[in-house]
From TrEMBL:
The keyword NAD does not apply. This is 4Fe-4S ferredoxin-type domain-containing protein. It comes from Pseudooceanicola marinus. The chain crosses the membrane at residues 103-121, 141-160, 217-238, 244-269, 289-308, 314-334. Coiled coil: none annotated. Keywords: Membrane, Transmembrane, Transmembrane helix. The lineage of its organism: Bacteria, Pseudomonadati, Pseudomonadota, Alphaproteobacteria, Rhodobacterales. InterPro entries: Citrate_utilization_prot_B (IPR012830), NarG-like_sf (IPR036197).
Length: 355
C-alpha cells in the first residue's frame, strides 16, 4: 500500500504535537488512541484517521491552530489520510481513485446509462406480470441485481482485509465486534468532546444535528434493506410474490426507510454546504456530495415509484429507480458508503487495543 508520503508526514507532525499537548484527551476515541502511542507508523495514522468522525471539536478547542506557527488542523490532516486510505485499499484500486476524482460525473452517467439499458430491455422484451413485473420480469431483476449485490460484498471484504493487515490488528473476537457495533449504533463519537454535539455545522456552535442526520441515513438504509429481505423471504419461502399492499411488512419497512433516507440525505447535503470545507478532505468534497445525492435519489425515486405506480409515469420512474439502485450497488465500494465499513473496522481495532 503506497499512501501519499506528504500527507503521512503532515499527519504525523500534528499527531506528535497533539500527543505532547493532551488538551483534547477527553474528546472522541481518536485522542485516547493517539495518546497511547509514542511513535506513529503509517498504519497507526490510518487507524486514527478512520476512528475520526470529523466532528471538528478538537480544532475549535485548539490553541495551536493558525495563525499559530504550529498551524494545526488535525481534522483535515486525518480526513486526507482517511480519504487516501480508502483509495489505496479499494478493490480494484483504480476504480476508487477514479470515483474520488470524478464522483458526480461517474454517478450521473452510471445512473442514466443503466436506466437506458433497462428501458431498452423493456422495449425489446415482452413480459407478463403484474405491477412492476409488467415492465421487467422478476427473473430478469434477479439475474441483474444478484451479481450487483455480491460484487460490493466481495470488494469491501478484500478492502477490509487489506485494512486489517495495514493497521496491524490481531485476531478478531466477538466481544470486540459487539463493542464496535454498540458504538456505531449510538454514533457515540458524534456526541462531541463534552457530549454537546459536533462543531461541524457552524464554526464553534455545537449541535447534535449531524449525529441525528447520520442516524436517519443509517437506520433508513437498514429499514430499506430489511424491506427487501422480508419481501425475498415472502416470495421464495411463503410463495407470496409482489406487489404487496400498503400495510404489508415490506411496504411499511420500505416507506419508513425511504422517508428517513430522503430527509437524512437532503439534510446532510445542507450541513455539508454550510460547513467549512477546509476542515475536511477538500478534494473529496464533490465525490461525497455525489454519493449522498445518489443515495437520496435511490430513496426518493423509490417513494415516487410507489406513489405513482398506477400511473403512466410508472415505466420511466421504474427504469430510473432501478438504474440508480444498480449504480449505487456497483459504486458502493468506491464511495463514501464504504466509510461505514472502515469505521466499524476501526472501532473494532480500537476495542481490541483497549483489551
Amino acid at each position: 500500500m503506497q499512501m501519499q508520503p506528504d500527507l503521512l508526514q503532515e499527519a504525523r507532525r500534528q499527531a506528535e504535537i497533539c500527543n505532547a499537548c493532551r488538551y483534547c484527551e477527553g474528546y472522541c476515541s481518536v485522542f485516547p488512541a493517539l495518546h497511547a502511542e509514542r511513535a506513529f507508523a503509517d498504519g497507526d495514522l490510518t487507524q486514527l484517521a478512520n476512528l475520526c468522525h470529523n466532528c471538528r471539536g478538537c480544532y475549535y478547542a485548539c490553541q495551536y491552530t493558525a495563525p499559530h506557527e504550529f498551524d494545526l488542523n488535525l481534522p483535515q490532516a486525518l480526513a486526507n489520510i482517511r480519504q487516501d486510505s480508502w483509495e489505496e485499499l479499494a478493490f480494484p484500486r483504480a476504480a476508487g481513485k477514479a470515483f474520488q476524482k470524478n464522483g458526480a460525473l461517474i454517478a450521473l452517467v452510471t445512473v442514466l446509462g443503466f436506466a437506458l439499458l433497462f428501458w431498452a430491455a423493456r422495449a425489446l422484451a415482452s413480459v407478463g406480470g403484474e405491477g412492476f413485473y409488467a415492465v421487467l420480469s422478476h427473473n430478469a431483476m434477479v439475474a441483474i441485481f444478484l451479481p450487483a449485490f455480491l460484487f460490493p460484498l466481495v470488494s469491501i471484504g478484500v478492502s477490509l482485509r487489506r485494512y486489517w493487515r495495514h493497521v496491524g490488528a490481531g485476531p478478531l473476537r466477538p466481544g470486540q465486534v459487539l463493542a464496535a457495533l454498540r458504538s456505531a449504533a449510538q454514533m457515540k463519537n458524534l456526541k462531541g468532546g463534552h457530549g454537546d454535539g459536533c462543531n461541524f455545522e457552524d464554526e464553534d456552535r455545537c449541535t447534535h444535528a449531524r449525529r441525528a442526520v447520520h442516524q436517519a441515513v443509517m437506520y433508513g438504509f437498514l429499514l430499506c434493506f430489511a424491506a427487501t429481505s422480508v419481501a425475498t423471504v415472502m416470495h421464495y419461502v411463503f410463495g407470496m410474490p409482489a406487489p404487496y399492499g400498503l400495510f404489508s411488512v415490506p411496504k411499511l419497512l420500505g416507506i419508513a426507510g425511504g422517508l428517513l433516507l430522503t430527509v437524512g440525505c437532503v439534510e446532510m447535503i445542507r450541513l455539508k454546504l454550510r460547513a467549512d470545507r477546509h476542515l475536511g478532505a477538500v478534494r473529496a468534497f464533490g465525490g461525497e456530495l455525489a454519493f449522498i445525492g445518489l443515495l437520496g435519489f435511490v430513496a426518493f425515486s423509490g417513494l415516487a415509484l410507489y406513489a405513482l405506480g398506477q400511473t403512466p409515469a410508472m415505466p420511466i420512474l421504474l427504469v430510473l429507480h432501478l438504474g440508480a439502485v444498480l449504480a449505487f450497488f456497483l459504486l458502493t465500494p468506491f464511495t463514501k458508503m464504504a466509510h461505514g465499513f472502515y469505521r466499524l473496522a476501526a472501532l473494532t481495532v480500537d476495542a481490541q487495543r483497549k483489551g
